[in-house]
Amino acid sequence: MAPMSTRIHFLGVAGYEITWADKRLLIDPFLSESPAAPVQPDELATIDFILVSHAAFDHYGDTAIFGDMRPIAELDRPTIGLLGCAQPVELFAKVPGPGTFLTGEMSPLEAALAAEFLDLKVAVARHYLNPGQPDVLEFLDLVAEKDTTGQRIAIAPGVGAIMTVATTDGGETISVTTE
Q: What global pTM score does this model have?
């Protein structure tokens, strides 16, 4: 099987631009009002697909950890997972009303367990602006702790970082580089 390379550009919060072959996917684009977006909408190349994943003022359609993740691992064998593990504290003021944000889509533990349930090779943190935020750091630690393969790579890129994930040997060999 020929090597495959996927380019992942972190746009901040939950936003990613993913390119492979001749395709371009934009996930949860929150650009115009983001305090840290590395690009604006009119600066993006033509997008083939847009995925909007959860119900927040900057997205649409919530999810969390669920039992069917284990069959997904067996049937579909995903390699890379973008896992919401935090709440971007820089955006708290944009959501009016009483109360306190407790977590993002999943807690750091739930996101680490999702990486395990899905048997991911690469677990990428999402839903933050600062990779040094405590929930993000906890996610990185928990991914390693819950990893039964001993080979899972956990990443929390900085806003604007571009990662290239290359697979060879039918997905058995993974390499990740960051620009």
A: 0.79
